[in-house]
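Dear H.,

Thanks for agreeing to be a second pair of eyes. The structure we're designing against is below in token form, covering all 317 positions.
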């Protein structure tokens, strides 16, 4: 069994081990693979692991031995699933491995926006406190979360975890999801989408990207939000119309935004959010804590082993 790892550096930059796969197959490892190099590296492969390298119908046609794709992530939109099905290729993913890490980053962004800890720590390091005439100073209004309303779009595992943390902060929690379900772990209220955006002090996105919700957050919806509102996106970049969000920040339609994802990654230099005021952007790192990557590695190995045993798990498509 010949297993090719196309972009292994993302999952394992050197602090984990590939031994679980080396015990199961002949492994060919590449830290990164350019688009033009995919077919050459997979031509003789029986199985492949990919995180963000797309696998298209052209790849399947050129790589007839390929029988298995392990996506080292939850999202699998990089795979042409219909072409994989026609080629008889099984595709697996890993749901839920980064729930706690993503929820933690939601609040890392939110707490930076509400108290500007990084900014004020930098001012202290520059000597601003030494020179201050007062024992305390702040250059932004400092916002308390208790009593504020957290609106969560998408109420799966990650959305519910974010809600639990918000509740622990003393926030009211409202949510919107495609399938309304009963939930009793903490007080929460289901609302329709326009009501959520109108009522929430903080909106956090946790829904998958679909053809129907691309650019879900656009100018018409942004205009219904409070001028003091904060928008957080750790889900998928294309959920936002980025030009509209940048305009909303420039024109004070909303107060702040925090992002861990953009529509193209790495982003082009002209992405409007990169120059928007009051916008914190992280380089898609919410999933990548050491603990989360260890869970991911373990699950990817188990997916592959289950495939070899004829009992594939976490199959998509």
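And this is the sequence the design step returned. I haven't edited it by hand at all.
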């Amino acid at each position: 069994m010949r297993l090719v790892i196309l972009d292994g550096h993302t999952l394992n930059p050197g602090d984990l081990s590939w031994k679980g796969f080396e015990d199961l197959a002949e492994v060919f490892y590449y830290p990164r693979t350019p688009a033009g190099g995919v077919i050459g590296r997979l031509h003789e492969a029986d199985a492949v692991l990919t995180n963000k390298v797309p696998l298209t119908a052209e790849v399947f046609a050129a790589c007839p031995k390929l029988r298995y794709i392990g996506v080292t992530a939850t999202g699998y939109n990089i795979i042409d699933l219909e072409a994989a099905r026609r080629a008889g290729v099984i595709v697996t993913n890993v749901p839920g491995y980064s729930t706690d890490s993503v929820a933690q980053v939601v609040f890392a962004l939110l707490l930076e926006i509400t108290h500007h800890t990084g900014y004020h720590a930098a001012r202290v390091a520059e000597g601003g406190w030494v020179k201050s005439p007062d024992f305390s100073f702040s250059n932004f209004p400092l916002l308390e979360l208790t009593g504020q309303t957290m609106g969560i779009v998408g109420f799966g595992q990650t959305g519910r975890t974010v809600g639990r943390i918000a509740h622990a902060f003393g926030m009211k929690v409202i949510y919107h999801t495609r399938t309304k379900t009963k939930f009793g772990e903490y007080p929460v209220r289901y609302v329709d989408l326009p009501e959520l955006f109108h009522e929430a002090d903080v909106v956090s996105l946790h829904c998958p990207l679909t053809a129907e919700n691309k650019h879900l957050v656009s100018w018409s919806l942004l205009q219904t939000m409070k001028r003091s509102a904060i928008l957080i996106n750790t889900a998928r970049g294309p959920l936002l119309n980025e030009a509209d969000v940048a305009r909303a920040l420039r024109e004070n339609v909303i107060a702040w935004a925090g992002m861990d994802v953009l529509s193209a990654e790495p982003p082009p230099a002209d992405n409007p959010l990169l120059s928007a005021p009051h916008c914190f952007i992280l380089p898609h790192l919410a999933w990548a804590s050491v603990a989360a990557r260890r869970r991911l590695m373990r699950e990817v190995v188990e997916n592959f082993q289950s495939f070899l045993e004829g009992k594939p798990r976490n199959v998509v498509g």
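Two observations from my side: The longest strand covers residues 149-153. The radius of gyration is 22 Å.

Warmly,
E.
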